[in-house]
Structure formats: C-alpha cells, structure tokens
C-alpha cells in the first residue's frame, strides 16, 4: 500500500512524498527535513517529489528516489539506505548533484560507494515496469552527462554517430562505457569512455529475462528479435524487472 503526503516549507518549496506502508511516517519526515535543509541553503524554491519504498531483498532496506525541479537546476537521485540510519545519504547525494550542476564539474566517480550494483541470481522474475520513450539522438558523451544528471545506472538513447540504439553505463576503466548494437565505429570523442567491442546480443524478451536472472546481471542491453530495436532490461530494487524501449523508429536504418 502506498501513502501520499504533501507539504510546503517556509522558503516556498513544495514537497510531495510517496511512501510504502512499511516505511514509517517518522522516517519520511526525517528525509524531508534533511533534503529541505540542503535546498534551503540554495534558496531555489521549486518542487520536490520523494518516494520511499522497501527493498525486498535486503533486511531494513529502503530505496529513496528524489525528483527536484527549480528554475536553476533539475535533479533526480536514487539511493538505497539501511533503515533510518542512512537518511543523511539522501541529502548528501542531492547536495553533490546540485553542486556539480552549478559548477560544471565532471561526471561522478565510479565505482560509486552509495550505489552498489543491483544484481543477483534469482528465478525468472516478471517485468513490472515498462517505459516507452521517444529516444533522444545524442552524442555518446552527452548521453553520459544525461545519465549522470538523472542518476541512472545505464541510459538508452540513439547514437548520433551511428544512428543505432545504444546505451552508456558505469564501468571501468574510465568510469563510463558505451555499447552499440552492431556498428563498432571509433568514438569521435576519444578518451571520454571505452566502447564495448562485442556486438549486442539479439534476443527475445523472455531470453533476456532468463539471462539477467540466471547470471545475476544488474541490466542487459539487447536487440529485440521482433523489431531490431535496442532494449534496456534492468533489475529493480523491488526485485522484479523493468524494461526501457524507444517509441519512434531510429534514424539511419
């Protein structure tokens, strides 16, 4: 069961909170106070949506997802915490993201100690969230910046250099890696990231699910056998799976 709360602060910040019934109101209030304290220092006003839900595969685990929008910055963060002891981690991550946007600092470092990989072996789990978007046509380094801004583990987009679906994701040795469907052209922005040299697997949706769950993968970028488009299948904190796919036909096909 989901519980919705809404409030506003003295500096004009409008706050909406959605929490799972297993997450106490006291925990939600502490989280609101922590992030409001950060935003109060910047005096941006704006609107904040905070969602708190239990992590089904971790005792006392909570995942906090925060979306903040103001005339100055737009921030999305997602961070797992252990019970109420990790509330400050939400505020710290928000502060870091805002400062990086305001100062133009480089992408966050990887590995990220606040965001352990959500990957574990399990029986085949269902896809409980499907996201269909008109994918943005981006240069790979811009896609990496979008991934960082919205605190994604991986980001699906149309690669401006090849015209194909592609993903960027956090991985060594440079922190960001690019995976393309089949065209393994060298990057025009050399040194920004590494490129996965292996063409993307062509799979059915069910085969992709089996691969993620059998091998404990946090996500899988694959080409769907039905239409030849790229898909991003990922493990959710709730334990089930999510799928991201594009709506429009990619250019250059």
From TrEMBL:
Gene3D superfamilies: Sigma 54 modulation/S30EA ribosomal protein, C-terminal domain. This is Sigma 54 modulation/S30EA ribosomal protein C-terminal domain-containing protein. It comes from Nocardia veterana. Residues 125-169 form the Sigma 54 modulation/S30EA ribosomal protein C-terminal domain. Pfam families: Ribosom_S30AE_C (PF16321). InterPro entries: Ribosom_S30AE_C, Ribosom_S30AE_C_sf.
